[in-house]
Amino acid sequence: MHIYHLAYLYDARADMSEITIKHLAEKLNLATSTVSRALNDSHEISDKTKKRVIELAKALNFQPNAYARGLREQKSKTIGIIVPDRVNHFFNLVIEGVETVCRAHGYSLIVYNSYEDVAQEKKIVYGLLGGKVDAVVMSLADEEKEVEHLKWLQERNIPIIFFDRIAQNVKGSKYVTNDQEAAYIGTKHLLEKGCKKTVFLGLSNTSIVGMARKKGFIQAHEELEIPLSNSSILEFGHDDVQNQAILEKLFYKLDRPDGVLAAAEKLGLSAYRALAKTKIKVPNQVKVVSFTNMQVADLLNPPLSTIAQPAFDLGSACATELIKGLKDKKTDFSLDKKIIIPSVFTARESSQ
Amino acid sequence: MHIYHLAYLYDARADMSEITIKHLAEKLNLATSTVSRALNDSHEISDKTKKRVIELAKALNFQPNAYARGLREQKSKTIGIIVPDRVNHFFNLVIEGVETVCRAHGYSLIVYNSYEDVAQEKKIVYGLLGGKVDAVVMSLADEEKEVEHLKWLQERNIPIIFFDRIAQNVKGSKYVTNDQEAAYIGTKHLLEKGCKKTVFLGLSNTSIVGMARKKGFIQAHEELEIPLSNSSILEFGHDDVQNQAILEKLFYKLDRPDGVLAAAEKLGLSAYRALAKTKIKVPNQVKVVSFTNMQVADLLNPPLSTIAQPAFDLGSACATELIKGLKDKKTDFSLDKKIIIPSVFTARESSQ
DNA sequence: GTGAAAGCGCTAACAA
DNA sequence: TTGTTAGCGCTTTCAC
Question: Which positions make up the signal peptide (chains A, B) (predicted)?
């Protein structure tokens, strides 16, 4: 009775569950090792056997168990990407670039979201040690306070490639855009168009990206010998409503700025909303240049000049180096180098 | 002092690639099974031993090997989500909703992108059989031509929950928004605002979502007894440039439409661009309602009325049901049911 | 050209 | 309460 019950379960399992190499081997009267070799196109297996094996595998839709293979091989053919904000369009484009290269080389990609939180980032990184990924592409969660978890990962021979918010105190390949130069170009645009009072809108985190952009803003003023007051560099938090309120106040003032460089998309939009809301007709008198990747900058009126990062290219460049290195196994990923990919500045003038 | 001891142990293992349960067991003079049980907080292990084990594990930053565990347990504590377009903002919000619930329950999430391509989707699904995920949340790649791969997955006891572009011929839980109703409301808005000649802009795929929106458009006209000509239902491909050209032509005509319902964000934007480009001053005479999740609709002029899907909620609802079912192991995921979460219609009027 | 057997790291049934 | 052992599915020596 008990036996029948078990037999029944076994049969049910046999049809319903997964096909393994062992099942194939039994059906074909071969050893599992032979089947494995045949499926991996080993040269020591006869063409005839290979054909038999592959045919049956296809017919039964055999899929190798990723975990068994990963355990045995000690690698996963998977790379991980850690971004600070999964919903952000910029990072999505980077991810798409990475994924495209991965797919082309038979790698899988797992996306992790650090929510701009170092604690979360650490959790992700240490979890990665479970062998889930062979390598990591990442943009830091926030200000670079802690790096032990990154060094730890590298010591475990899991290479890291950094992009955008790169680490300063960890060696490795770093892919960035020309943030300072781009901010410089954007600011010069404002100044050359006649802006007399420009402001820089930055997020209050001390991210390397924000710093670079601020430097570019200052650099342009210095070069054109235009004095900058303290009130020209503004810092904002993450609360959009509050930010907009501050900006509205700014634009209501009589000595309001006539040129704005926004170092983040959300700040550019907040500035734009604040301008739109000012009842006195200032919008057209204030030029805005914003770092952004949004697809609708050309639809706004007055138009928003933009600095767009080459996100997709950034991602595919990272992945290309990574996978190449993973394959030849000779690459030294701790080599410190920086690759700069230029942003695209688009000036848009009001038609009115 | 104790700490120093642990640090010493750490150094001793520093060159070894990874810490395993076996390493811990040796250091502690315990069996691997004891260590395993201690780490999993088994009740049959003494508190003292537990403490010793957990302390060392922490000090060495032990991380269990995900592949070994997955292989042994035959489950991965991971769920997969398959979306047609990873870069699309709507799907990103859904993903965020799913991820939030997953994290809260200790599940990992892997995102797969089908690129709106059924062949790609099949590849993903069959690859999933490798045991990488315990369950799947998905929105179909395209028109529902093929479903064997989905049924296959279900037969392998991997539950699927559908959302947005749901399957008609596969049983299961289906989470959707009220597309027909939302389109109906949007269209009625246009008609009540006095539009005499309305057009529906849809993508030419036959997705269930597009169909429902089209139905809503027609329903509103029928209800208000306003006749619809053939030329009122327009279908577009995926080439934005070409779409915009077609729309420009449309708006240049003397008998141009004065109301537009766009069933996809990209079409709404193309229509908007086309309107902005027409030299004759038509923009303000044409009202546009678009399905969209973009964050800047309020910045446009003339304003764009929008129908936004509750993407995050959709995602978290799917994940909640899924994980609950995975946990109690009693849920029948082949039960056919539909959960409708309402969209949000926002009417925006021109201030001019 | 093919088979037998070991072992990747983990958990659980069974022993003690 | 702890130890011994088997085995998840796969690849890879080492035999033959």
Answer: none
* Nucleic acid strand D: bases within 7 A of protein CB: 1-13
Measured between beta carbons, which residues in chain B are less than 8 angstroms from residue A95? 86
Contact B132, B78 (CB under 8 A): yes
The CA distance from A99 to A94, in Å, is 9
CATH architecture of A179-308: 3-Layer(aba) Sandwich (3.40)
Q: CATH 3.40.50.2300: which residues of chain A?
A: 74-176+314-340, 179-308
Nucleotide nearest to A46 (CA to C1'): C1
Q: What is the pLDDT of residues B163-180, one digit of tens each?
A: 999 999 999 999 999 999
* Residue the block writes with tokens 């399992």: A13
> What is the tens place of the pLDDT at every residue in A166-191?
999 999 999 999 999 999 999 999 99
User: Rounded mean pLDDT of chain B?
Assistant: 89
Per residue in B200-241, pLDDT (tens digit) is 999 987 788 999 999 999 999 999 999 888 789 999 998 999
The predicted-structure confidence for B3-15, as pLDDT tens digits, reads as follows 334 433 333 333 3
**CA-CA distances (angstroms) from residue A135 to A109, A130, A326?**
10, 12, 8
pLDDT at B280 over 70: no
* B56 within 8 A of B28, measured Cβ to Cβ: yes
Q: Give the span between the Cα atoms of B222 and B282, in whole angstroms.
A: 27
| A36 nearest nt, CA–C1' | D11
C-alpha span between A175 and B45 (Å, rounded): 49
Superfamily holding A74-176+314-340:
Response regulator (3.40.50.2300)
Cα Rg for chain B, rounded, in angstroms? 27
Q: Looking at the DSSP assignment, which residues form a beta bridge with residue A109?
A: A79
Q: List the end-to-end C-alpha distance of chain B, in Å, as a whole number.
A: 75
Distance B57 CA to C13 C1' (A): 25
